[in-house]
Structure formats: structure tokens, C-alpha cells
Amino acid sequence: MTTVITIASGKGGVGKSSLAINYALRLQAIAGNTLLVDADLLAANVHILLGHKPKKDLISVLDGECRITDAIQDTTGALSVLPGRTGASVKVEKDGDPLRDLIPQLRDTMDGTKFVVVDAPAGSGRSVLNSMANSDHVVIVLLGQATSFVDAYALIKNAYLEYRITQFNVVVNIADSKSQAQLVFDNFARTVANFLPVSLSYSGHVTQRDAIAQSAIRCKPIVQLPGEQRQIADFDTMLKNILASPRNSAKAADTTVNSVS
Ligand SMILES: Nc1ncnc2c1ncn2[C@@H]1O[C@H](COP(=O)(O)OP(=O)(O)OP(=O)(O)O)[C@@H](O)[C@H]1O
Ligand SMILES: [Mg+2]
């Protein structure tokens, strides 16, 4: 059985791609058979951060040039990646989702794949919500900033109202310390609990690290850099927490509340 994890946030630039790449590399290293999907159709950058030059990509699939399986490529650390395309222009109908069937198709065709990690775009658009609804675990990346709180809250609210998603994991990124991250989560969880009948699980935090910012410049994920055992252990603990959290029981296709077909 394939376990699908979507990394989303509401607000942009909070570290989704960075986390998705490092989680996927750790899952590949520990369990093997892991696929990382760059679902950010308009601002794909996973391939850049991995220093990979794709031959085919998700746009090729959407354009009918190849099958999904033909666009999946081996990259660094033997990680399989379904990349996006830099500077792609994709026509998206209002409320439409070109990737609506992507996760169900991956589940059908990628038999031996143990884990699929989806790097979602920013915002709470239809494709983000569909991806969340089709996932076993949803991870919300949160910063200790008002704008991040507001956008993460809006995403969770839309996911609940439109798809009845009730289980969310939260990772606090760019934290000052463990205790500050816990405080950020506690504040956010309290706000959410006041208004929405959903359950948030705290998965852990990543501190603000020059090495992470540098790894994006060098196109080398931090879990592949020497001397990062501590960071690797922290990512592994987060992953363990995420995989041990209750599974999302929503299914995009089954949804009747305000969903597009
Ligand atoms: N813990 C961290 N410490 C320092 N820098 C970080 C950390 N996490 C992410 N960054 C940096 O923040 C920037 C944004 O990260 P990233 O591209 O992963 O965010 P994103 O949420 O995927 O953005 P977008 O919404 O545009 O897709 C990058 O330069 C990245 O290196
Ligand atoms: Mg990104």
C-alpha cells in the first residue's frame, strides 16, 4: 500500500519544498521506493533544488506527450521524482484542478511505491485541497508569524469545510528554539480549536539554519551534507510522528460539500 503525504502551508515561502525534499530523501534512505511529486505547476522548483535536469515533466503529462510513469525520473540518493517545469504556463479554469486525478492515478500505477511526498503550491486553491484530501497524511508548515497563522488557518478551514479533512500535522519551521516552536504550535492549535472541529498533531520543528538556506543555493539538500546527523535525526523524528498520526479519511472523489467534479 502506498502512503501519500502532502506538504502544504497556505502562505508561500515558508519552507514546503525544502521540507518535502528532505523528508522524501530520508524516506527513500530508510524505506526505499519513495516518489517526490512537484505539484506546484506554476512555480515548480524541486528539480532545481535537487540539481536535476528533467527530460520529461508533469507538463509533458498534462500535454499528453507521455504517461505519468515516463515522466518519473531517478535523481540524487536514488529518489524518484515527478518534476514540474520552470516557467510553465498552465491554463487553469476557475475552480479547476489539472492535477485532480494525479494521486489516484499514482496509487493505481505505482504499485511498488511505498511513499509519495507531494510538494503542494502555496495558497488554498483547488489543487492543494484535492491533494490534501487524497493524501493519507497532511502536513501544514507553519511559521511564528501572523501572516503564516492566517493563511494556515484559512487552508485548514477550507480543507474542513469543503472536504471534511479533520486530521492535520503541523511542523513549525524557521523557529528560534524548541520551546519557541512549541509555543507557536500551542497558540495556533488554540486558535484553531476555538473555531474548527479538527485535530492538529505537532510533528516537530526546524530551527532557522544558515545551512538550510545555503543548501538551496548549492542545490544540495541538507540531509545529504556531511556533519548533519543531528538534523537528519530531527527529520526522522518528524517523519515518525507524521506516519504515526491518524490517517486522513477524507477522499476528494467522494466529497459532496462544495466540490467540483
Ligand atoms: N529552517 C530554515 N532555515 C533557514 N532557511 C530556510 C529554512 N527553511 C526554508 N528556508 C529557506 O526559505 C526559503 C523558502 O523555502 P522553500 O522554497 O522551501 O519554501 P516554499 O514554502 O516551498 O516556497 P513556495 O511557496 O514559493 O513554494 C528558501 O530559501 C529556503 O532555503
Ligand atoms: Mg515550494
Automatic annotation (TrEMBL):
One of its GO terms (molecular function) is ATP hydrolysis activity. Keywords: ATP-binding, Nucleotide-binding. It holds the Pfam family ParA. InterPro entries: P-loop_NTPase (IPR027417), ParA/MinD_ATPase (IPR050625), YlxH/NBP35 (IPR033756). It comes from the Bacteria. Coiled coil: none annotated. One of its GO terms (biological process) is negative regulation of cell division. The keyword ATP-binding applies. GO terms for cellular component: cytoplasmic side of plasma membrane; cytosol. This is Flagellum site-determining protein YlxH. The lineage of its organism: Bacteria, Pseudomonadati, Pseudomonadota, Alphaproteobacteria, Rhodobacterales.
